């Protein structure tokens, strides 16, 4: 009888241990000096495309077994056509888990063509993890009929989650507007569409109060303001350095 009770207790303890293991926190860092990089994006929605003279969207989630020491980015075609940047201080450094999200400037002097994009993460244990992707860089197409945006402004460069800001811009389109969109790029992307301007054409002023999403985390954001017409031509202007406190 005692033997049966002991065996039953051991079985119960095994089930309990398995339950604890399966319910472990997803934020636990990897073990044995490892780095995990996932949800990688080179270009918006990982389309692998960049426009010379503009910038390239980069994003990935990083989980490290020890504190992150450095993150380096390179976009290379050859010795004369490359962009390299190292992040060894700031919000990505000295933490175990982070979402790396940056917009890397692509100088107008770069040649068109295929590039190799690389993100490399190093932690304090000396572990190094690299992800690569093929990227195509092209020069901006100039279409005289595409929408035009000028004097894009926001009334303040600082706000908070659920805070209100006002955007203004002068817009000119040959064909009717299909959509106007504002994107906030920070810890993640927040998109807002303004359908009330659909069908407008010619010259007009965009002036709109916007409430920031309630889940915006504090940090520095990069804003894209895009006008698309019904011929699928679009123009985008940007505001850098918008701060959510």
Describe the fold and architecture.
With 245 residues, this protein is mostly beta strands. The protein has two domains: 35-139, Immunoglobulin-like (Sandwich), CATH 2.60.40; 148-244, Immunoglobulin-like (Sandwich), CATH 2.60.40. The chain has one helix at residues 2-22; strands spanning 35-42, 49-52, 55-64, 68-78, 81-87, 97-105, 113-123, 128-139, 148-154, 158-159, 164-173, 177-185, 189-193, 202-211, 219-229, 234-244. The strands form four sheets. It has a five-stranded mixed beta sheet with strand order 2-8-7-4-5, with no helix packed on it. It has a five-stranded mixed beta sheet with strand order 10-16-15-12-13, with no helix packed on it. A three-stranded antiparallel beta sheet has the order 1-3-6, with no helix packed on it. 17% of the residues are buried.
Give me a quick take on this structure.
With 245 residues, this protein is mainly beta. The chain is built from one helix and 16 strands.
Number of strands: 16
Q: Specify the CATH architecture of the largest domain.
A: Sandwich
Our estimate of the beta-strand percent is over 45%
Number of helices: 1
User: What spatial form do the alpha-carbon principal axes imply?
Assistant: globular
CATH class descriptor name of the largest domain: Mainly Beta
Mean pLDDT: 88
- What distance lies between the first and last C-alpha atoms, to the nearest angstrom? 65 Å
The main β sheet shows up as: 5 strands, mixed
Strand/helix succession: HEEEEEEEEEEEEEEEE
CATH-defined fold name of the largest domain: Immunoglobulin-like
Structural class comes to mainly beta
DSSP helix fraction: under 10%
pLDDT under 50 segments (min length 5)? 1-31
Keywords: Signal
Signal peptide: 1-24
InterPro entries: DUF4625
Organism: Prevotella fusca JCM 17724
């Amino acid at each position: 009888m005692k033997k049966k009770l002991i065996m039953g207790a051991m079985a119960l303890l095994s089930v309990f241990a398995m339950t604890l293991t399966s319910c472990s926190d997803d934020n636990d860092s990897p073990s044995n000096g490892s780095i995990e990089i996932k949800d990688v994006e080179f270009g918006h929605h990982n389309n692998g495309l960049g426009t010379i003279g503009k910038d390239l969207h980069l994003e990935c989630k990083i989980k490290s077994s020890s504190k992150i020491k450095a993150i380096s980015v390179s976009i290379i075609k050859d010795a004369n056509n490359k962009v390299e940047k190292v992040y060894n201080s700031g919000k990505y450094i000295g933490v175990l888990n982070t979402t790396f999200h940056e917009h890397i400037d692509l100088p107008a002097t770069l040649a068109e063509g295929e590039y190799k994009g690389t993100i490399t993460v190093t932690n304090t244990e000396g572990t190094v993890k690299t992800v690569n992707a093929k990227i195509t860089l092209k020069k901006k197409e100039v279409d005289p009929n595409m929408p035009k945006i000028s004097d894009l402004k926001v009334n303040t460069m600082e706000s908070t989650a659920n805070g209100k800001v006002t955007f203004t811009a002068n817009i000119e389109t040959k064909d009717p507007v299909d959509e106007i969109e504002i994107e906030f790029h920070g810890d993640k992307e927040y998109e807002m569409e303004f359908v009330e301007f659909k069908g407008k054409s010619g010259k007009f002023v965009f002036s709109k109060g916007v409430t920031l999403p309630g889940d915006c985390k504090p940090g520095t954001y990069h804003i894209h303001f895009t006008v698309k017409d019904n011929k699928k031509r679009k123009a985008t202007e940007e505001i850098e350095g918008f701060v959510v406190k």
